[in-house]
Amino acid sequence: MSAELKIALAGNPNSGKTTLFNALTGSRQHVGNYPGVTVEKKEGVYRLEDKKINIVDLPGTYSLTAYSEEEVVARDFLIFEKPQIIVNIIDAANLQRNLYLTTQFFELGIPVIIALNMIDAARDRGIEIKADRLAEFLGVPVVPIIARTGFGTQKLMEEAARQAARKKEWHPKPISYGEDLDSTLLDLEEKISAGNFLTMYPSRWAAIKYLENDQQIISRGRAENGALSAELEKKVAAVSQHLLETMETYPEAMVADHRYGYIKGILQKGVISHKYDQDRLYTSDRIDKVLTNRFLGPLFMAVVLFGLYTFTFTYSELPVSWLETLFGQISLVVEQVLPDGPLKSLIISGIIDGVGGVLGFVPLIMFMFFGIAILEDSGYLARVAFMLDRIFRVFGLNGSSVMAYILSGGIAGGCAVPGVMATRTLRSPKERMATLLTAPFMNCGAKLPVLALFIGAFFSENKAHYMFFFTILSWLVALVLAKLLRVTVLRGESTPFVLELPPYRFPTLKGLLIHTWEKTWQYIKKAGTVILGISIIIWAMMTYPGLSESEKGKFALQRQEVEAAYPAMVVAGGNMALSEAEATERSRLLDSIDRAEANATLRYSVAGRVGIALERVSFLAGFDWRTNIALIGGVAAKEVILSTLGTAYSLGGDDQEKNGSLAEILASDPGWNPVKALSVLLFISYYAPCFVTVVCITREAGSWKWGAFSMVFNTLFAFVLAVLVYQIGSLLF
Fold first, then answer.
1. Interacting residues of 37 by C-beta distance below 8 A, sequence separation 6+
2. According to CATH, where is 3.40.50.300 located in the chain?
3. Distance from C-alpha of 38 to C-alpha of 437, rounded to nearest angstrom
4. DSSP state letter for 520
5. Is 157 in contact with 141 (CB distance < 8 Å)?
6. CATH architecture for the domain at 3-165
7. Which DSSP letter does residue 168 get?
8. Rg (alpha carbons) of the chain, rounded to whole number
9. E strand or H helix at 10, and its extent?
10. CB 622, CB 679: distance < 8 Å
11. pLDDT per residue over 362-385, tens digit each?
């Protein structure tokens, strides 16, 4: 039986932690959420000879103090799950800053092995690190690696397995914080131990958290033993007042200073040397002189964005057409095999035309995600946030909001849910609220196929131009509305923005493929589960209760009249066929009756009645009843708009040709034109967020009122914009 070990990967953001995790686990990983929170949880498996090593990729964090949910999740996992060892990934070019998190692992006492990552980048900067001396002074193994190429990863895992197999006890390593704090710590530690207080934590570590004013630990302490917690807080308040009077500082600042002092003392013992002048401009800095230039940077950013859309539409066009043909062939086979009836209608109209319309855009989604992965893995997206900070400050936000917008689909293809969750890093509550309420205006991955459908149907000659236009427009709309919120219900000053710019790196093909597949698979899985379920429900709503017997009789009578006018006469010698012109006319009239009956059935259905009722208002924006049905479904998930339109035009229409893709059907429908398409696109881009996003906004904002506000405010704004565009466009064209 093979041995089974559990290790955790931890490190600062941009330290290469995710790259290492992907390199080690490859396809043997799965993504979920930590229980009770929406922070992403990644787990994977690495096999080393007869050992199965379960690897948990912890959220990137700079410390273990509860300033963010990611930090709380990381430390709670370590304390309550107790992995056998933690692999601390460190950026070799930023050793001092990265070791700050390491000192906190030491204070916690968990067994640690250090992965000294990106040693090639450090060497290019003239930085030489003696790993053996660093290991000697830290007292833990240090393994140099290059995660993106795989160099040293085998040795790292062998050492991690060797250390984990020893089943070491947790032994916190004390760090001195100066005479005042050390004496207070000893006193706090003694009281915590004697009172059998917060026993899930090492007593000295709990004492440090009280000094750092860690609200999560203090809240747990109050709940467990209010009297003892109050006594500890009183002692901390006393030393805080003393430090403020004597040194004009606070305990948490003093703790941080001494941690950095501990690190600096180690690094000065011949651990690190610089070949070049430390003020020298490195390759990344030289590139940034151009790419983040005040004038050239935005121009380059626009070129990159436009290039991304050109690449996506150019190379995805052929595979998208292949999938459209495939689903068309499947539909024809089902049409020939199954007898007429509800089952046949469900499979063709509800599933194939519904879900198939969503899955048909998988190649486009895949190419888009691949391009975004290149920008992200290369380090360029961080520069986008840096450059846009100047613009965001004009609208009452700062650069911290940029990543929330990007994650939500600022470069088309994201998702509003992680975008809304990313606002947790914003320190200002009002900036955070303004950001999470406007992030859903971005073109998320769910809107992307809808945009692609209408752009391909009505603006096919300039697909990349229109996608670029809608992307820039989404940013402009979000910022203008954020400014409106910041000068009304969320008034307040903008806060400063500081961002660490990671060095530029060449993305690895393996990393790009993993990132692309992860996001594409989420899209496919959603189409095969959520979208499928909603498509079936909407098909039922568009099928039942069906026409009354009297209405069916009217259509049956019309068929009889056509058949009587064009009889297939039979004589003794066999069938007397109609002339070719007569047979064509007979077929045309019967098809027209079939379409009219299907259209009447759809209009009479539950969904049809709702769509027709909404036409009393929606006609102002050019929306017909079929469009209304699709837009209602889009509140559940924006991809449902495609599946609902596919089902609606499959179940019935006026006289439009139902063969071909949905884009071809819409383009040939006399009820559609570019002005109406533009109106619909604008409404879809900005109306109520999908249900999951609304739930996330409610949870992050702490009140259902903000979720309701988002739905009502966004929909009203989108409708007014669509009405203006449709009415003005109809007059001009």
1. 69, 73
2. 3-165
3. 18
4. H
5. no
6. 3-Layer(aba) Sandwich (3.40)
7. P
8. 31
9. strand 3-11
10. yes
11. 887 788 778 878 887 787 877 887
